[in-house]
Design a protein that fits this description.
single chain; 10% strand; binds alpha-D-psicofuranose; binds manganese (II) ion; isomerase
Length: 429
């Protein structure tokens, strides 16, 4: 297997920091031991954690106004896979890539699967795209896709989703993520009830095409591109649709797809309560669907979400196996650096959630001891878990400090020389 970053470079980097890491890990281990926590057991759980990266996240994103490309950014799925391999090689928590079609279309999907495999990667959920028109496409999605008033347009959207399932089977995926931009921009533009009926009828045809071991992940989003109403706008619409479609339909929570200040951790707990929590798109936001780097704005919320996910792990319902993915738009950073940093932020929150003294928390909740319940969470949140993550990473062959090793490798400068320049153009949704 020829990986993009030299193994010797990673080993040299790790050697330089080995003594410091051992010292920090031992010190944290002693601190946690006093709380009755075995640091090796936590490290073991952290080593088993992973989050997929989106193929489209490897390129520079943009806004509705501009995209500022950087030299060496990938322009096709092959280059994107190479960049994703760098992220996995250094972080060891991102072994899967979530592709988006038709953006990642190729002629030979079995060869694509082998290519990914040779880079140490596999494929995660397949994302369909019925929010954009493609060149030569007979029907426009300007009236919506699965909920369009035009039957031929709905049919085209159904067929595209079924094609995504077929591609997914060839590349080893078992989940189809469906996000539709369908909705309206003006009051009265469409009948709100009938629009949902059309969506459910079309989505049921996609659902019927799912292989036995597949899931359909419904991703809700409050607004954008529809600014007055969106068909699957919130977790309520999402769970109702998933319940109507059947057991293989689950809900996917993208952290940026809610009204400001909504209690997302409560949504997580609710969806899990009804066995419908299927997946996550991690990112962060300040104002709307900003697609900022995970944990860059509100790391505490990310921790609280993981606190619910750890509770859910302890009380699994209906085959609980959430598909975790990063979904960000990197407008001003090197996407590889952003995803390395985000993978670390996400894993940190998972590790902190594992440190929560669950017996103390549940006891305080039962006793209505609010302050102790809160402090039980706070105590875990305040731990610097970096030595646990670094130890798990190094033991798995990754880098002690992924960002430092990445810069040292000069990978970005090499790609800037080798790869064709990217055009300007708009960003992603
Ligand atoms: C929509 O905003 C979204 O979050 C969906 O997951 C899309 O498929 C993705 O972004 C990429 O544009
Ligand atoms: Mn998303």
């Amino acid at each position: 297997m020829t990986l993009p970053i030299s193994g010797d470079l990673i080993a040299d980097h790790n050697d330089q920091h080995a003594a410091a890491l051992d010292e920090d890990y031992a010190a944290l281990g002693r601190q946690l031991e006093r709380r009755g926590i075995d640091i090796d057991a936590i490290k073991h759980r952290v080593a088993g954690f992973s989050v997929a990266v989106p193929s489209w996240g490897a390129g520079r994103g943009g806004t509705r106004f501009a995209k500022f490309p950087i030299a060496g950014e990938p322009t096709n799925i092959h280059e994107k896979l190479e960049d994703c391999a760098v992220i996995q090689q250094l972080s060891r928590v991102t072994p899967r890539v979530s592709p988006h079609f038709p953006w990642d279309k190729v002629s030979d999907y079995r060869a694509l699967r082998e290519e990914a495999d040779s880079l140490g990667l596999a494929f995660d959920a397949v994302n369909s795209n019925t929010f954009q028109d493609q060149p030569g496409q007979p029907q426009s999605y300007s009236t919506g896709s699965l909920s369009s008033t035009i039957e031929a347009t709905r049919q085209q959207a159904i067929e595209h989703n079924i094609e995504c399932i077929e591609i997914g089977q060839a590349i080893g995926s078992t989940d189809l993520t469906v996000w539709v931009g369908d909705g309206t921009n003006f009051p009265g533009q469409q009948d709100l009830g009938k629009q949902l009926d059309r969506y459910l009828e079309a989505a049921s045809q996609v659902y019927a095409a799912l292989p036995d071991d597949w899931r359909m992940l419904l991703e809700h989003k409050m607004f954008e591109p529809a600014f007055y109403s969106t068909v699957i706008s919130d977790w309520g619409s999402s769970i109702l649709a998933a319940q109507e479609l059947g057991p293989k339909a689950k809900c996917l929570v993208d952290l940026g797809h809610h009204a400001p200040n909504v209690n997302i951790e409560q949504i997580v707990a609710r969806l899990h309560r009804f066995g419908k929590l299927g997946g996550f798109h991690f990112n962060d936001s300040k104002y709307g669907d900003d697609d900022l780097d995970s944990g860059s704005i509100n790391p505490h919320q990310l921790f609280l979400v993981f606190n619910e996910l750890v509770e859910a792990e302890l009380n699994p319902r209906d085959d609980f196996r959430p598909a975790y993915m990063i979904d960000q738009s990197h407008n001003v950073t090197d996407p590889i650096e952003s995803m390395l940093s985000s993978a670390e932020a996400i894993t940190s929150c998972y590790a902190k959630a594992l440190l929560v003294d669950r017996d103390a928390l549940h006891g305080a909740q039962e006793a209505n001891d609010t302050m102790i319940a809160f402090q039980t969470l706070r105590r875990a949140y305040n731990v610097d878990v970096a030595p646990i993550l670094a130890k798990a990473r190094v033991e798995a062959g990754g880098a002690y400090d992924a960002l430092v090793a990445y810069r040292y490798s000069q990978y970005s400068a090499r790609k800037a020389q080798e790869r064709a320049a990217v055009g300007l153009g708009a960003g992603i949704v």
